[in-house]
Design brief:
With 216 residues, the chain is mostly helical. It has one domain. It is 74% helix and 0% strand. Helix 4 (52-74) packs antiparallel against helix 5 and helix 4 (52-74) runs antiparallel to helix 10. The relative contact order is 0.15.
Length: 216
């Protein structure tokens, strides 16, 4: 028995390459979302097509799908890094863009906000686990930014981010329920997390395309 593989999900019952077929295949949802976003960028105005922030978000959605697909196929430490690093980068980049372009904070405030999120998403997993800290921080950040935009500024991006946060909470619930429901649902529920999360990332990136004007 191969003891080096990482067994974290209900669907996986062994170290085989195709031991998590649903968890692996549903990462195509991220790829599909990235392709839709790329097509939207191509049809957008020139400033959007040349916007490094937007292009970075779209690229990260695509890489998230590839990285997660690798992890659910190989289930090794290197593939786990390919899974979690792009997710963390998306969170940090989106946090910066939201603070800078939507909330219009000064540069120092944006960097401070990103630094706080970085500490919480990188340091806290050591004691609390990646899922608990990183995704909890991401949800809190979405609610905080969305709430500040909607309640404080009546910004049109606020409701969109809050809706995305609500869907992310549902998605996170499916991710959390994967192992506890394993005896009842042998397939697990992690694959639903992929599908819903792809919608969340698409919605967040689309919101930034529409409302996130580049800072002068």
């Amino acid at each position: 028995m191969d003891k080096d593989f990482i067994d974290l999900y209900c669907e996986r019952i062994g170290p085989g390459l195709w031991a998590e077929p649903w968890n692996a295949v549903t990462n195509l949802a991220f790829v599909f979302a990235a392709l839709l976003l790329a097509a939207t960028v191509r049809r957008a105005e020139a400033d959007v097509r040349r916007d490094p922030g937007i292009l970075g978000l779209v690229a990260l959605v695509f890489v998230i799908g590839l990285g997660s697909g690798l992890f659910h196929s190989f289930a090794r430490f290197w593939s786990m890094l390919a899974d979690v690093i792009p997710i963390a980068l998306f969170i940090l980049l989106y946090m910066y863009l939201a603070l800078r372009r939507l909330l219009a904070l000064p540069l120092w405030g944006c960097l401070l906000g990103v630094a706080v999120v970085l500490v919480l998403t990188v340091v806290m997993p050591v004691g609390f686990g990646f899922s608990v800290s990183t995704y909890g921080v991401a949800l809190a950040a979405m609610l905080g930014v969305g709430g500040a935009l909607h309640l404080g500024q009546r910004h049109p991006a606020g409701p969109r981010i809050l809706i995305a946060a609500g869907l992310f909470a549902v998605s996170l619930a499916f991710r959390t329920a994967d192992l506890p429901l394993c005896a009842v649902l042998p397939l697990g529920t992690h694959f639903v997390w992929h599908i819903l999360n792809a919608v969340v990332l698409f919605s967040l990136t689309r919101t930034m395309m529409i409302h996130g004007k580049r800072a002068a």
